[in-house]
Amino acid sequence: MKIDLTDTTASKINKALVEGRRAIGTPAVGMVLTMVIVTDEENAYDAIRAAEEASHEHPSRTLVVIKRHARTPRDRAVPSRLDAEVRVGADAGTGETVVLRTYGETSEHADSVVLPLLLPDAPVVVWWPGEAPENPSKDPLGALAQRRITDLYAVADPFRVLETRARTYAPGDTDLAWTRLTPWRSMLAAALDQSRTEVISAAVEAEEENPAAELLARWLRARLGVTVERVVTRGPVVTAVRLGTADGDIVIDRPEGPLATLSLPGQPSRTLALKVRPTSDLIAEELRRLDADEMYAVALRGAPAEGTV
Question: 54 — phi, psi (to 5°)?
Fold first, then answer.
């Protein structure tokens, strides 16, 4: 069910949500969190679809904030306004979705629009699928959230932005470039548990200027205390990690496709599943934990940390 509201207010939107849920016979609100997506028209469709798929695991109220910026003198003459599209039932996954389009000065104060629509006593997650503020925790919308999700893959200069993220990191910040590395980090940890040998060198192979590869290299350098070489390949994304030991190399190699090969010294090679996951899976993973991701902070800063991988 969809309800369109033009030149509306937060109270009218809340009323439409209640009426929509009653109309489809589910008046009780069973959401576990509020997801705020800050995006533009170009990326809105894919972001909403990913959030709705993730809501099957994490039922949530999704608030999509689309700031309509003036491009012409005629557009700039448009007064402040808020339009909304309320989706409940089959049109919103297992949760409910509100698409908010802000015009004029309303765009500068989107937090005042979002605040009355947050679920009471529920965590708030803010996700920027595209460009994000330099300091997400200081952004008016980011300040409302326990978890702030950015994506280095969506920016024009990911390495410059990565350095900015390292300077402005606050507990609760995370990035989908880091989330994409979860299977790699799990396999590397398992491989080292089996080998029980000291790592003396490391290399990460990936396409040039890949932010996930840079984060992985920083994490390995911090956790293993070794110099990590970056090797440029044709990709796509991270294609291999090589850990040098006195007994031989530990290698996870995924040149292409969803399968990788794990090679350990003195053992036969084995095939592992290591597919490139869709955005909905990445978002669902991030919503499983809303506390601070300390290892992301370590990878960002490249600082040594206690313990082993």
Answer: -65, -25
Cα separation, 129 vs 96, whole angstroms: 19
Tell me what pLDDT residue 76 has. Answer: 56
Inter-residue contact 232 to 242 (CB < 8 Å): no
Mean pLDDT rounded to a whole number for the chain? 88
What tokens does 108 get? Answer: 């500068």
Structure tokens at 232: 């440029």
Q: Which amino acid is at 155?
A: V
Q: Which residues pair with 248 in a beta bridge?
A: 245
97 φ/ψ angles, rounded to the nearest 5 degrees = -125, 135
Output the pTM of the full model. 0.90
**CA angle 31–32–35, rounded 5-degree value:** 85
Strand residue runs (E) in 49-206: 60-68, 81-88, 96-103, 124-127, 147-150, 173-175, 199-206
Answer for the pair 117, 14: CB distance below 8 angstroms, yes or no.
yes
Q: Give residue 77's pLDDT band: very low, low, confident or very high (50, 70, 90).
A: low
Task: For 23-92, give the DSSP string.
Answer: HTT--S----EEEEEEE-HHHHHHHHHHHHHHTTTS-EEEEEEEEE---SHHHHTSPPEEEEEEEEGGGG
pLDDT in tens, 80-135: 899 999 998 776 667 789 999 999 888 888 999 999 999 988 999 999 999 999 99
DSSP class of residue 154? G
- Interstrand relation of 173-175 and 199-206 (parallel, antiparallel or unpaired): unpaired
| Contact between residue 128 and residue 153 where contact means Cβ atoms under 8 Å apart | no
Single-letter residue type at 129:
P
| Under 8 Å between Cβ of 110 and 43 | no
Q: Is the separation of the CB atoms in 136 and 144 below 8 Å? A: no
Q: Please report where in the chains the tokens 């390292």 appear, as a residue.
A: 166
